[in-house]
Amino acid sequence: MTPPPARRRRTGANSAAPAHNFPRRGAVRRAQAITTYGVGSLIAVDHESFIVSGLDEAEQSWSRDESPRIYERRLARVLGVDYFRLPPASDDTSKDGLRVRRFPLMHSCPECNDLQRHRDFNPPAGRSVCGTCEVDLVPSRFVVACEAGHLGEFPYWQWVHRSTDRGATTAGQCGGKLKVRTTGRTSSLRSILVSCTCGQAPEVSMEGSFRRRALKDLGLKCRGPRPWLGASAPAQECGLPLRTLQRGSSAVWQPVLKSALSIPPWSDGRSDPLAEHWEQLRELNSRAEVEMCLKFVFKGESPVPIDDVMAFLVAEREEDPTGDEAPSFGHGYRALRNKEYERLRAGNDESEHSRDEQFVCETPLGDQRVLDPLGVTGPMLVKKLREVRALKAFTRLVDAESTTDSKEMPLSERPLRWLPAMEVRGEGVFLRLDEDRLGVWEKAPAVAARVERMRTAHQRVLEQRADDPSSVVPSPATPRMVLLHTLAHILINEWSLEAGYPAAALRERLYAADDMAGVLVYTATSDSAGSLGGLVARGEPDHLEQAIRSAVHRAEWCSSDPLCVESEASGAGGTNLAACHACVMLPETSCEHNNILLDRALLVGTPDNPHVGFFAKMLGH
Fold it and tell me: What is the pTM of this model?
């Protein structure tokens, strides 16, 4: 999780001078600024620790040259913004990068064992060393967080003085200084000892600090600190229970990422000049009013023809059938997926559009009837696609995949009309399952029973992670969703072997609902494993039929069998059944659901009941 150190900057007349006097502390890729080191996350650079600043500061520091705007109207409408911006790249030509602040502030010196705020060590300017011992300071290993997204320093003073009078536990009132040392006997928390020179409290270990009620028993509650916004940002009223976390824990920061494919009529860039005026245009009813508004906004002739503008408004209202009522985020996001599914089924031929078209989806030339025995239908070759992934918010202690808006921490203190995002250009293969055959299969009692076990386990995990179980989002587990999810995984594994793609370069996009049963496998990167045509070639019916047969036969056997296929529960919280890293699990970048809700038995059956598998007939069961 530690980014590489910054490369030495070139000097000379052509060297790009920084736009500020802040020292550089390492480098991250643009994609990491969305997925790993986004706003509010902790980032370790060498022996120092920082927190990435909020978008209020980025609004002033990200230059337009290094952080250009990108547009995806469908996603922007759902997220309530006008446009997106690429994070600045961290390289030798960058004048500015991601702003960070030192966090946690509590540090220790391994030489003198003092435990205090960083500035109290009197370090030389630009260095993180003890002013007395001249050795590198060590940031606190522990932080505290609440489920509302706040993050704070671990309360060492209260932890040490918990056995004394509560009235004298405020930092500094006892007159002593904190010390920390390790016994070196074990690597457990029992070996980390904290003491105070005041002599009023005994030396205590950190053992027990991770108990769920450890800080609540001390009478401590969250005060709403938001260190990524700076000292000037007021703390929020909170009062939720605090949890102790290791500074590098994945629970400290989880991104809430939302994405959309660029589909017609938005996929050729014609609508980009109107990005900041859509809310105004949506309130108008007639063509004359729209034309008058465009003349006023652009001080003359509009860069977008009036016919195109009216077509855009019609398309947007079709995707938002609630009309004047503001749809919920979940409703809008489902409508976004529904439109993508319709467009993937309908296609978009390359010959009918200009070179600027970013979505090209065509019917393969081969005979599709070879797929009928498999229960697969409607393959489409997605020769060009563009996906925009935006960082909507982040969570702490809460699963970002199934969170509610109340548990999400926004990226800025004041509302902004943009969000950080990245765009991926690539290619893919789309396929559907036969609705008639799928409908019969998913009604089988054995199928419903297996999926219900996963759904119950997943729902239990979601409720355990939430303070208010009544506000938990229902688990998305259904027979067709688990089937499509597992099918996508085995196809990605098959194509990584057959077509030479690394599994991490491919990604799934599921369309599973009562009226949808499709999956898109596409390239998730725009580098050398991006748009080279290799994946599209695998979508021709004869190649696709061979790939599905090979993938399903490969899924019949796992090196962990019979333990894997006969498992009653696997994965975190029992949210998988017959699924493990030896058979169907993928790199996390390739999976939409963090490698949960998988069961290859729904593909190939089990030794006791082979007919539970959707492809049982193909396997001769």
Answer: 0.86
